[in-house]
Amino acid sequence: MASGWDAHSDVDSRFDFEGQDSALWRHLPRLVDGVNKLAISDATQLVALYQYHSIEPEVDNTLLRNLTGISDPSVPCQLVLGSEQDQHRLPPKVGTDEHSYDLGLSFNKLLLAPTIYLKCTFLRVLEEGRPHTAVLEWHFNSYSGPGTGIVDYVHDDSTAVISFTAGPATCSGFNKLERAKNKLCDQDNEIYGVLKSYLAHGEHAVKLKLKGNSLSLEARGELNKVRSRLPGGDGVLLPTIGAVEYAAFGDKSDRVHCARDGMLSPADMLLPIIKHPMVPIGCTNTFTTVKEASVQLAYSAVASEAEARESTKLWAQVYHSAKVFPLGNFAVLGVRFQKFEKLGSANGELHYRLPKEMGASIVFKDRRSGMSVKVKTILIGNVAELPPHDAFFQIISESAEYFGSGEMVSVGRSPEYFDVKIEPVYNSATYASQLATVAQLQLPGNRRWHGILLNQVHDAIKIIDLTQPKEAEATIAPHIRRRADAWLEDWMTWNEEQVAVIEGIKVAKGGTILVMGPAGTGKTLLQEALSIYFYLLGFHVLALAPANSNVDHLAVQLGRIEEREKLPSALKFLRMYPSVRDFIPKEDGDATELDPIPAKHSLVQFYDLLSAIDDRETDKQTARRYGLAQAVLHAAENHTHVLKRCLRSSTGNARGDVVNAWDLLREFIAKWSHGGTDRESLRSGCDDQIMAQYRMAYAQCRAHLIGGNRFMLATTGNARASELVQHWYSPEHEWNVKRLGVVVFVDEAAKDVEVNVWSGVVCEQWASGVRGVVMFGDDKQLKPTNTCSRGRINFNAFNDRLDIPLPCRLVEEGFPHYRLLEQRRMHQVLSRFPNREFYKGKLRDGAGTNLPLDARLPGLSKALKTIVAEHGSHSFDESRLYKVEATDADIRLHWVEVKGDRIRHPGTKSLCVREHVQVFFKMILPRLIECFRQMDKRVDEHIMIICAYTYALHEYLDGIRKMLRHNDHLTVADMPQVLTVDASQGREASMVVFDGSCQHSDCMGFVNDDARCNVAITRAKEVFWVIGGAMNAKRAENSNRKPATLAKYKHELGLMGKCHRFA
């Protein structure tokens, strides 16, 4: 390693190897604190893992690899069956082509959870062109109680035979064989039957004849180092043999301790005899045990959170530049980052991004008084109306008027930037939820989900009818079921795959339904229909998705159904947004000087309600109108609820006499809405007791609506929001709501980390009532966003676990699932390439995907022809000819070729081609605005720009801001949406313009990723244009390389005459 990472720990005494096999741990003293690069201490939160590319004479890298992963090479072998007198071997011979499978013996995870690893390769059972493999693992520890581990292990060198007795093996790769067993040849069926017999309960005698003659002397020598450390070997026995698996992560055999403030630190895991090896650990589609699942899910989250936290601390150590902007009734701080040390190295080799949710206290000086001012803020996303900044923080402790009043601060209207010190609130609600989820998942009460979690053998998992009540003695009246069934059947004309899903809810394997399908195949329609169906039956419904945009889209769609369609009964749902109280600074008071000032009441706890009051007109146009705060406001103003109880503090203690909480809340709302002195009295005029009553009343009114509602929408990261856990699906007597059970829906489940998907399923408040879970996604598109560092510097031993979503690993192991194959989003012209390139031609175009563009958006065809003719043609005649001869297909799909320079942002290292942006605003957008105005339609509802890089996104947002500033007649409605590729998944638009910031085929960056390219290409319904370069190779030696998908797309469009160079 280079730089500070070369410095070895100077406290080798921490690692006491006396009486131990020191060869196992010689790499550990070379590791240092990942932040300060000093010796590992009790305060260390991150350790830069040992990398095998390090050349350390004292460290045996090959041995370390073989002890922490699957030992290599695998030794060809035979299973020896029968008694000594009647013995036969499978396969009968090794090293010939007379049989249809091979067996290979290895060892796995010997320094963590040691197993004997037997792999069977079925040479004639092909999976995407590769032979299928099935694996058995016998454990050297009693992984599931007495009698499950290996005993009597003997390795006889003279006969090259390994024999042992063990309990049932764990496995992977068996489910697909089970489904295909009728197609297996006789030899495959024989070995499959034998291998499967080792999964049965009870003890099994196993004998393996090794055939290692083909191995090199070097390979034999490396394997002998491993075998010498196993029972009967001539070396020091591995400390993990017979011990609790993953002992470095806790001494319990069946679980790992999970608590936000009680996770083991790196130092804790290096002290015991069995240590964390501090190297990257491979992760697969199966877990051998629940403890292994718990360790990987929990400690991948621990390392991810620690990395984010330590990165943010480094970012917050320096002063940044900021400016105050008014935004509605609140003020926003636009922040520009100054140079700061980045986690990873002194040279800042690793990029940094702020957490998605974060609160902060921000301190700055008032230029008039010289006093230091502290305000409470929350991090928000990009604001299209404001100039691009590295981050925006909305001030929640003061209104916009505060900064323009001149009473305290004079920075609000100043054109200059000023220095700010940001004090982040390290309180990740998502992280706390992840640890709590793992803690719940491993409990015996959630054992019903362990078969799906382990993902080993599916045929033993029970079939469940999700439409039957989960709660004991609960029933569904026949007439209610008939009405719900009739509504679901008649709501729309379902295709055959959708019908299969609907019928499948009565035969759900383990209560789990997986629905996979590309964009536009009706996943969202099915989710809407099925969630309403279960709601009509009387179930509680929890609809989740990883991103706020996905949840908001579902809320809007459900709202339209509620408003426009006649349902058998009223549909009432709530959108649960992350509560500001989960991540705001905890100190008392609002904007405060660090010098003494008169005390003022905190209104932070009312932030979402006050926003709902002040922004009610704006919220009517967004998904916010279905939010909890808006629902509370509506209920209070319309006197629809009464809640006469004693007020209770946040700790649950009763305060005062019985009151109607809604009356108190109405009193507060009236004062705030009236403004003036009444509003100011809420800050300084009321006494503490009255403000406390208002806060408790608001909390109880929120609880009233949550407890009384059966349909909640939230992100997976917010599924365990404290208010939900406390009040939703409460006992019937609490809120007088009948309980049949809970059905959980997870949209875009393939784009979320696994632990988040489990969060809404095993939450202790309703886990016993969960009837089933329905997951939707596309395993061909983007996987979860993993922000952990990787490569040369890696802090997360289980980094790979964050890349493997639950539905994808289930599907890959053969779990029953449904594939939707009829797409109704993209016009047929647009669907051909992604269908062929990503979905093997299995998709079919549904009804309505062949309509001409003018039938959908009259006038757009002419506008697009004009754009190409005016700016993409080389002569007047060519321009005129294009306008006449260009077909509907020609203008729907187009490559706008622009020559430019790919530049890198000096701070973030993100990319952009500014010439692409200039062409869009000068040559494309003006015609589109004119066209959509003539159609009396909003551009922002029909056109989307998708950017591969955030630098390019900021340039487009800046272009929008400038265009609005210089054209008074234009509004935000005339501007397109601008999203990154990741943010666009799950979204759609009539026309999409994709800017991958690409000029050459051999300089693609992460646009070279097929999943990312798939997302970008499949967002458009009617028109898809790409702005890019000529896509020739920048270096001649790369000309013969296999082209990336986007370069291949450009080549095909060029051959079809759908590519024009814009000057």
Automatic annotation (TrEMBL):
Keywords: ATP-binding, Helicase, Hydrolase, Nucleotide-binding. This is DNA2/NAM7 helicase-like C-terminal domain-containing protein. GO terms for molecular function: 5'-3' DNA helicase activity; ATP binding; hydrolase activity. Pfam families: AAA_11, AAA_12. InterPro entries: Coronavir_polyprotein_1ab (IPR050534), DNA2/NAM7-like_C (IPR041679), DNA2/NAM7_AAA_11 (IPR041677), P-loop_NTPase (IPR027417). Residues 809-1029 form the DNA2/NAM7 helicase-like C-terminal domain. Belongs to the DNA2/NAM7 helicase family. Residues 495-785 form the DNA2/NAM7 helicase helicase domain. The keyword ATP-binding applies.
